[in-house]
Amino acid sequence: MTSARVLPLLLLLLAVLGAACGDAPDVLPDPRGGRSGLQMSGLFSDRQIAVSDGLPVLNTTDCDVNEGPDRDVCIVTRDINGELLRVIFENPVALQEGAVLPVGSDCATDEACDEVLDAAVIDFEFGDRRRVRAESGTLRIEVVEPGQRYRGEFDVRLPDGSLSATFDLVPRPDELS
Predict the structure, then answer these.
(1) pLDDT one-digit tens code per residue, 28-85
(2) DSSP string covering 35-62, please?
(3) Cα–Cα distance between 154 and 167 in angstroms, integer?
(4) d(C-alpha 176, C-alpha 39), whole Å
(5) What is the pLDDT of residues 116-147, one digit of tens each?
(6) Are residues 84 and 78 in contact, defined by beta-carbon separation less than 8 angstroms?
(7) Which of helix, strand or coil describes residue 144?
(8) Alpha-carbon distance 38 to 98, whole Å?
(9) Is 3 in a helix, a strand, or coil?
(10) What is the widest separation between alpha-carbon atoms in the chain?
(11) Contacts by 92-98 with C-beta closer than 8 Å and gap 24+?
């Protein structure tokens, strides 16, 4: 190949590589392509928590069966050390697309928590420790397709810690009927 043909090919290759290194648009990939997930970090009962799970379990039925029948939205995952972690949105009716909700409620029963519309009621269970309810913070919901997709972020304070997370949750492929 002559140098007259190599130079244009080399310039084209450099242009393609340069374009690939430019700023990417601020768009999340389609989670149904297997690219959903949960990223969370913070402090839970004096223990550092870090979660990076590409496909956590999304449960949109009753996540706390011992508390009486109700509807919840739950994330079931493991931290980077392999310990089980559950995030339970006790009042999924409040999870509306575009909502920015304060976090925290003093509701005492499943029925009372289900009725809270002006705040997010979020509980956390880590390993075999007792369930803890977030006391304050903010939940931002970007996308809601009930039972199919929930995308957003939260920053919450717990009685003994705080957690921050971003999530784009969809059912696992084996959970789809």
Answers:
(1) 444 455 557 999 999 988 889 999 998 899 988 877 655 666 778 999 999 999 999 9
(2) --EEEEEEEETTEEEEEEESS-EEE-S-
(3) 9
(4) 23
(5) 999 999 999 998 888 899 999 999 999 999 88
(6) yes
(7) strand
(8) 19
(9) helix
(10) 80
(11) 92/60, 92/146, 93/117, 94/118, 94/119, 94/120, 94/121, 95/120, 95/141, 95/144, 95/150, 96/141, 96/144, 97/141, 97/142, 97/143, 97/144, 98/141, 98/142
Count CB-CB contacts under 10 A for residue 35: 13
Contact residues for 72 (Cβ-Cβ < 8 A; gap 6+): 59, 60, 61, 62, 63, 64, 88, 89, 90, 92
What gap in Å lies between CA 172 and CA 43, rounded to an integer? 28
The residue assigned the tokens 């997709």 is 149
C-alpha angle 67-71-75 in degrees, rounded to nearest 5? 90
Chain position carrying tokens 């004096």: 46
**DSSP one-letter code for 95:** -
Q: Which residue shows structure tokens 């768009």?
A: 27
Q: Would you call 153 helix, strand, or coil by DSSP?
A: strand
CB atoms within 10 A of CB 96: 12
In terms of phi and psi (left: phi > 0; alpha: psi -120 to 50; beta: otherwise), the region of 143 is beta
Contact (CB, 8 A) for 167 and 38: yes
Sequence-distant (≥ 6) Cβ neighbours of residue 65 within 8 angstroms? none
Q: Are 137 and 158 in contact (CB under 8 A)?
A: no
